Amino acid sequence: MEHDREPTRAWVLHPDIKSDRDRRPAGFALEEAVSLAAALPEIAVIGSEIVPLQRPQAGLLFGKGKIEELKARIEANEIELVLVDGPVTPIQQRNLEKAWGVKLLDRTGLILEIFSDRAATREGVLQVEMAALSYQRTRLVRAWTHLERQRGGLGFVGGPGETQIEADRRAIDEQLVRLRRQLEKVVKTRDLHRKARAKVPYPIVALVGYTNAGKSTLFNRLTGAEVMAKDMLFATLDPTMRAVVLPGGGPEVILSDTVGFISDLPTELVAAFRATLEEVLAADLIVHVRDISHPETGAQAADVEDILASLGVDKAVPLIELWNKIDRLPEAEAEAMRNAAGRKDGVFATSALTGAGLEPFLAEVARQLDAERHETRLHLPFAEGRKRAWLHDQGVVETEEQGEDGFDLLVRWTDRQEKRFREM
Ligand SMILES: Nc1nc2c(ncn2[C@@H]2O[C@H](COP(=O)(O)OP(=O)(O)OP(=O)(O)O)[C@@H](O)[C@H]2O)c(=O)[nH]1
Ligand SMILES: [Mg+2]
Q: Which residue ranges does the record assign to the Hflx-type G domain (predicted)?
């Protein structure tokens, strides 16, 4: 990060496309796009606007008149970077950059930039690099087809020829193979870590949710950790885990804070973060943290559920929903929310900031984890002392008797604990 440089002056555009059936309310979408831009420290958002459009124009995205109008504003404000909240084809990007004399990023490009700014672990860095390269590769190909066509028609010579583009693609492919190999190595080490953690005697509770919902704030409050919690999109990128004792002498659990989700998450990134989010797949309990004070809270929750499903999260994993930031609502509304949450199973109105509503939530975590447990009788030969020690570590042994050729145990454990045991 270069702090001494002047921030790049940016303008944010949200194309509100009328032909797009399931388009989001433009005001909220623009607000989110501005927050996304603000998540990059080197950008200063000078202005933003909604651009109503009947349908996207093939070569330029916007209509000619609109482009002229925007050009005037861009020049008057000395804008260097235009962020378009939506997909922009490579051809459109090139043409708009030329028309306005700026650099342009689309939504996927911007999210990739943020992720690459945040990635802290080796694994995170590799994943973002791979996502960015895959994105770049598709754009390279399409831009080239366009150039070729144009050159053919006008008879120009020069510019990148086929061999150059082919070489670029090959270079990207080779780089991707290299990255994948490195990633595999890192994942293998992490798998070892996870195996080590599987021996840790506690169930895993994963916090998931839309970006900025309050996951890290809750994580910090419960664990006393200091994970960066900020009014900034994608404050957290790498998953963080900490052991916590649930209050009231409840069981000890491992709490896991994860990367936030966002609508239209670039597919490259979902794929890239699969490995990281496997922590979530391995959880004994999922806590979905929602910002209930956000005007789009319903749509955000639906997005999170879609992403969880696409990650293959097992429907059998119990889930608790938190209606967080209840303190931001006017008292009458907060009261109505608390009542509505109270009528639903596994839903709690909370404030990670003030701590309100957390006690009943934590009691439910303890109860759910306990309800999940079932009893199993095991016979362990003397040679399996390691497994026996593991069971005792997990605190699942109810009774134990020494027989002639080993131990007879009665254990009470969760499905996942049993699965981990069977895999040992
Ligand atoms: N008023 C209020 N603000 C909250 C509450 N929980 C979190 N916040 C604020 O919301 C912002 C985002 O909180 P984070 O904990 O960083 O959110 P996150 O879900 O971890 O976000 P990402 O890491 O970006 O996915 C911060 O400014 C928090 O102080 C709450 O219960 N009430
Ligand atoms: Mg966070």
A: 203-373
